[in-house]
Amino acid sequence: MKLLGIDYGKKKIGIAVSDSDGRMAFPKEVIKNDVHTILYIVNLVKQEGVDAVIVGESTDYKGEENPIMEDIKRFNKTITKKANVPVYLEPETLSTKEAEHIQERHDKIDASAAAIILQSYIDRV
Question: Class of 3-62+69-124 per CATH?
Answer without folding.
Answer: alpha beta
